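OP here, attaching both records as promised.
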Amino acid sequence: MTIRTILVDDEKLAIQGLQLRLEKFPDVEIIDTCSNGREAIRKIKTEKPDLVFLDIQMPGFDGFSVVKGVMEIEPPLFVFVTAYQEHAVRAFEANAVNYLMKPVDEDKLADTLDRVRTRLVEKRSAEEAEKLKNVLAEVAPDAIEAIPEEADAAGALGANRFEKLINIKDRGQIFRVDVDSIEHIEAAGDYMCIRTADNSLILRETMKDLERRLDPRVFQRVHRSTIVNLNQVRQVKPHTNGECFLVLDSGAQVKVSRSYRDVVARFVH
């Protein structure tokens, strides 16, 4: 799978630096570069890339204006690249795949491209499933009724849509964490604490973005700032005010807030 990519930045050196880093990834094809927002909107509409690396602060049309300017077409995936940390929240609100700080860290770039590949496979698989359903509706309408609800984009693709390993850079090392080994995840500001039975690692990522990478049939939010691996739950202990605690395989206990209790009850018996 080739990832057709456009780079957008008003600084020529920034584009050249990103081009050099992307040379290490043979599936990334840079089809064009743009030096301003207006040019980027035009190129995105005509070239229809899979991915756009987009600077946020540019004269005239900034990065967010570019995203808004291509909403009438099926937009590509966006990765924001900027020197300004304060734009992070808006970047994720714009549904960006990731947010990279300049100068771009090579490990974070590799992790970002892993996310891009996952998103593209998910997107293309969903498109193929929809095409198949449309054909069946024309040539065999009775067959459509026999397709279970689980066969739509959220179910037919199954667990293959979601990541099996997560790369986490923590304390100067890169850990490859088997997703099945994760017990629970806690949000701490702009960081996520990934807890396994024998380790705790810090990942710089929003909870919303991390949730997109994990299978929702296994990983459920049980608190505003906590996600639990339901396969690791061994006991439910009632608490006060309609709340409860989940006891995990390791013996750790995770509090379930009242507003999430019904969600967990559907999975834990």
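Record two, same layout:
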Amino acid sequence: MKINNLYKEKENTEVRNSTLHKANGESENLPYELLNEHLMKVYINEREAMSLVCTGTNLVELVVGRIISEGIVKSIDEIESVYIYEYGLRAKLIIKNNINDDEKFKTTEDITSCCQDNRTYLKGEYKLDKINNVIDINDKVMFDLAEAFNEDSKIHKMTSGTHAAYLYLDNKIVKSFEDIGRHNALDKIIGYIYMNNLVPEQCIVFTTGRVPVDMARKAIYSKLGCLVSKAVPTSDAVDLAKEYNLNLVCRAWRDSYQVFNKAIK
């Protein structure tokens, strides 16, 4: 895969003034660090496929992870090139399978900040396959991940406005990403996994967001060994995890965690 990234990443946050009003009637001027939103349109094989609202960092990982986690491609080998334009407002991907069929495209539109399925407008090419799962769920892993979350991520400490995703591999956390939306943070981790030729079935990924069907589906399309969340799943997400052999652990805190599906090896 050829990558041509002309975008120079900008700061994720800016300070804005506000007035803090207290219950005792007092008030004070309070500068506050806020997230910057970044809008990027994504083109696949010269056709506009989706619009993403995200943080303006790790855009290559985001778009690579997105087309894998939505079932548009199955592997990095199907992506010929990724081009990020100078201001990061457009990304262009060339992939090997022919998706220039009008029936596969819906009308694109700008979307809000990524917590309502963070929709794509391109239908996935592939059916979901069962994961060949090799992951053992154990206390050390789960409590390591919960502890990492408790220590907080960099941008969230400043703004309280991001979701994060952590990659756990070989008994340690090897990478983390933040974004406005939980879908984007997960996609960045997935992009990182595939771009670095890691084995997704051996990867445990922790998300700070809840796990409805769309998040479980992303994990299954990407063949992740285990998806862990501090939040809750939906009943449909649990059913999907059971059907496709995804380890699913939620309500993962420093002193407890709940296994909603333990995959069969």
